[in-house]
Amino acid sequence: MQIQFSKNTIPSNGTVVILIAQEAKAKKASLGKIAKVLDKKLGGGISKAIKTSRFDAAQDKILEIIAPANTKLSRIVLLGIGSPLKATAQTFKELGGGLTKILNNKTENAFCIVDDIDVKDLHKEEIAANIGMGALLGAYKFDKYKTKKKDEKPELKELVILTEKADKAKAHYATLSKVAEGVLLARDLVNEPSNVMTPIKLANEAAKLKALGVVIEVLDEKKMQKLGMEALLGVGKGSAHPPRLVAMFWNGKKTNKKADACFVGKGVTFDSGGISLKPGNNMEAMKGDMAGAAVVIGVMKALAGRKAKVNIAGVIGTAENMPSGTAIKPGDVVKTASGKTVAVLNTDAEGRLVLADALWYAQKKFKPDCIIDIATLTGGMLTTFGNNMYAGLFSNDDTLSEELTNSGKKVGEKLWRLPTDDVYDKMIDSPIADMQNMGNARGASGTVGAKFIERFVDKGVKWAHVDIAEIAWNEKGTALSPKWATAFGVRLLDSFAADYIEKKHKKK
Ligand code: BES
Ligand code: MN
Ligand code: ZN
Question: Is 75 a catalytic residue?
Answer without folding.
Answer: no
